[in-house]
Specification:
Blueprint (H helix, E strand, L loop, with lengths): L10 E5 L6 E10 L4 E5 L5 E4 L4 E2 L10 H4 L2 H13 L7 H4 L1 H39 L12 H21 L5 H19 L17 H24 L20 H19 L4 E4 L10 E4 L1 H17 L6 H4 L1 H23 L16 H7 L6 E2 L2 E2 H28 L7 H19 L8 H4 L5 H14 L2 H8 L6 H30 L11 E3 L5 E3 L10 H14 L11 H25 L1 H9 L10
Antiparallel strand pairs: 1-2, 1-5, 2-3, 3-4, 6-7, 8-9, 10-11
Helix pairs in contact: 4-5, 7-11, 7-12, 7-16, 7-17, 9-13, 11-16, 13-14, 13-16, 13-17, 14-17, 14-18, 14-19, 18-19, 19-20, 20-21
InterPro entries: ERG24_DHCR-like, Lamin-B_rcpt_of_tudor, Sterol_reductase_CS, Tudor
Membrane topology: Multi-pass membrane protein
Protein name: Delta(14)-sterol reductase LBR
Length: about 625
Amino acid sequence: MPSRKFADGEVVMGRWPGSVLYYEVQVTSYDDVAHLYTVKYKDGTELALKESDIRSQSSFKHRKSQSSSSSPSRRSSSRSRSRSRSPGRPGKGRRRSASQSREHKDDKKKTIQETSLALAVLVFFKLSENNTKRYNGEPESTEKNDTSCIILEQKLKPDLEVKRVLEQYSLRSRKDDKKTEEIFSEKKTFLAIKPIEKVPSKTKELEFGGRIGTFMMIFLLPATVFYLLLMCKQDDPSLLNFPPLPALESLWEWRVFGVFLLWFFLQAVFYLLPIGKVVEGLPLSNGKKLQYRINGLYAFILTAAVIGALLYFQFELHYLYDHFMQFAVSAAAFSLALSIYLYVRSLKAPEEELAPGGNSGYFIYDFFTGHELNPRIGSFDLKYFCELRPGLIGWVVINLAMLLAEMKIHNLSMPSLSMILVNSFQFLYVVDALWNEEAILTTMDITHDGFGFMLAFGDLVWVPFVYSLQAFYLVGHPTTVTWPMAAVITVLNCVGYYIFRSANSQKNNFRRNPADPKLANLKFIPTATGKGLLVTGWWGFVRHPNYLGDIIMALAWSLPCGFNHILPYFYVIYFICLLVHREARDEHHCKQKYGLAWERYCQRVPYRIFPYIY
């Protein structure tokens, strides 16, 4: 194993990825496995660099060329002596042409380095000036129609022209000229400030309580689901009335498991259909972009056609209600088997395909959080498929089954107003997610979290069986809602949905195309990664406005269940805890990623989720 060259805490010069520019950085750690140095820039940005991209500060001290140190008298006498020699004898100046060429070459390299350094300083002061103006309330120059970079490039053109004239008479090969051109093309690339992704390394900071916390959650999550479902079956679902445990043989039925497998693979077939557009995800740590087929809405329509055909042939859909606990157990068993498969296959995955948050080296932790970022079988993306298809579409089917079960059990000609509200609100939420399917490609689940037990159980068990808790509760505990109350609840849900959708659309459009003319009114704080932090619109109101809209909708889904028991409000209580925890994870990751820019953003937008509260 090669020994490391730079020590922790040493101040060196690190090359900015994608350019030829070097900046002063401090070495914070070294990965012995990947042979990468973690360095910290002055603005707080941390990146992983190879040893070849790091140089000592002493190597940037310019040396004086020999030609410049010569006195004028020496040069004049040299010229006079060369003129007095005969034509048949080569002059001394001509014999020294090779060394002079090397000196010219060194001078040109220094010119390139000085020009690049000047460019970096100008860009840095330009960004600093923009930040100062923005916080003083002055118009910022980071708008999409800003021409400062173009002007800066025009100022460099005279230097480039002089360089080309000098190179025209140099003795360098065309290969060297080509390399020099590549250097200048890299400088122009820096002007665009392209985003830089960090190469995955070992996970140092463990979340969810570390190894002990994740071990507990593997058992706690299934127990919570089963407890909630058993409570809903009771006549008195109060917290102090603990339900009796059912017999183990009553929790499993192979026929139910077969129906679940049929549902899962039916959605897989719909996913593989060559319909819908194909888009690229965000760049991975190695710079690649994966392709995804956007056809979730088509899968939903095809599923609706299949369900309609089953109802037409008088298939009893309330079979789901009668065997609801067995379906939950079947889904949990399948998610556990899937998680084991995912972890085993991740052991052979290349280093760059591992998840940033699930590469700790601890079996339990990596098994829970997910070791591999984007596990695929050919072009079939397992994580992306499970995020929206079996669980989310299954949620709507379960709600419909509960509606039909309510009508059958209580001999109703039409469902209750409470059931209609719950089904309508959650139907809108699912259709919106499928309509905006492409937006999920920018979420933390896709870009950061690996695919392990946490997401597998969450997508296949938690979402369909816990999110449908209100509909399941209403079947056994009918609640009357007046029309005025229904109108208030509907308005509340619409307000939450508007905040949720408009905030997410604003963020996703800005991430996809910051130069979109429709976003010209938005202001942002530039970061060292090339991305901007929005400080106007919904994202200037609170840091996570989409979370605020989500919580308001969750409250609207629970209100139709009345106030007799707290059980149907488990969803909104859990959702607040979930989003507060996720917000804390976001804060931590963003502070590491954006450094000083994130601290400025937090000063500009002080409230996290709830304005004037939190």
